[in-house]
Each structure stands twice: as structure tokens, then as C-alpha cells.
Write a sequence for this structure.
């Protein structure tokens, strides 16, 4: 039985590839259907797509093709599939790299470079994970989230004393 965790470990597998697996054909469950709530917020760019230009989105994105140009996901998750080749500056909430990225990565939460993944560029994030076998060339800056203060004196309505004569 497929679980969400197993599905995340195979980012670029198509149903055709899975049908030839030793386990045999895979039954499509509700979590794998495009109309289900779990899949509704994930956009996918297939392996045969080549895109030149700026990509912006407010939903999670998985890229398996070639992209040249900046990618901005407004705090969402970017998954770079095994067949993906990005020549992009990336800004997202979370970035998981199975393929190749050339360009700077800025992730609010975390960056993961998987064992066959490659990143050439600088990374700015709060957390990072680089697996054995991954390729990375660049600088890493850990950008810790700033702690929330109880009250900012300028934003709190402080009564002002007035003298009436």
C-alpha cells in the first residue's frame, strides 16, 4: 500500500514506470487523483517541458523538465525531480532537490539535496540537509527566523497624556 512518505520518495515516477515494477501495476487511490484535496495544491511540469521565463505560484510545484528563469513560490514547496534541470534563482518556503539546479536557492524553512541531486549556487535557509552522494558547490547561509517579540512599542496604541488648561 502506498503512503504519502513513499510517494514523496519517487518524485518523477509515472504510472507507466510503476506498472513495470516488480510489485506490478499500481492501483490509483484517492490520494493520487488530481481532484483529491491532497493533490489539488500541487502543480507539475513534466519531463518533456522546456520553459524560459519567470514562474510564480501560490501552490506547491514539482518540476521534472527544464526551466531557465526565476522561480518564486510565495512560501510553498518546490520539488526538483530526478530529470529536472533548472538554471534559476529560486525563492520558496521549502526546496527538495533530486535533479540539477544551477542558481541561488532561498528557502524560508529548509533545503534538502537528495543523494543524486546537484546544486551549484548559494543557499540561504533556516535548515539544510545534504545526503551522501549529493553534489553541492556554493555558499550556505543559515538564516534563522527572527523571534516574535510580545509587542512592538510603535505598533501598540499607547495613550498619550494631554494637559488641558
Amino acid at each position: 500500500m502506498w503512503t504519502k512518505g513513499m510517494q514523496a520518495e519517487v518524485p518523477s515516477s509515472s504510472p507507466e514506470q510503476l506498472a513495470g515494477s516488480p510489485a506490478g501495476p499500481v492501483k490509483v487511490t484517492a490520494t493520487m487523483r488530481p481532484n483529491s484535496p491532497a493533490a489539488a495544491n500541487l502543480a507539475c511540469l513534466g519531463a518533456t517541458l522546456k520553459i524560459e521565463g519567470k514562474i510564480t505560484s501560490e501552490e506547491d510545484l514539482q518540476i521534472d523538465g527544464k526551466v531557465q528563469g526565476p522561480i518564486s513560490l510565495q512560501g510553498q514547496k518546490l520539488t526538483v525531480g530526478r530529470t529536472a534541470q533548472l538554471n534559476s534563482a529560486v525563492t520558496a518556503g521549502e526546496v527538495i532537490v533530486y535533479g540539477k539546479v544551477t542558481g541561488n536557492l532561498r528557502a524560508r524553512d529548509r533545503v534538502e539535496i537528495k543523494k543524486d541531486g546537484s546544486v551549484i549556487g548559494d543557499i540561504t535557509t533556516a535548515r539544510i540537509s545534504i545526503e551522501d552522494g549529493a553534489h553541492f558547490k556554493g555558499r550556505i547561509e543559515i538564516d534563522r527566523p527572527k523571534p516574535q517579540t510580545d509587542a512592538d512599542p510603535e505598533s501598540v496604541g499607547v495613550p498619550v497624556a494631554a494637559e488641558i488648561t
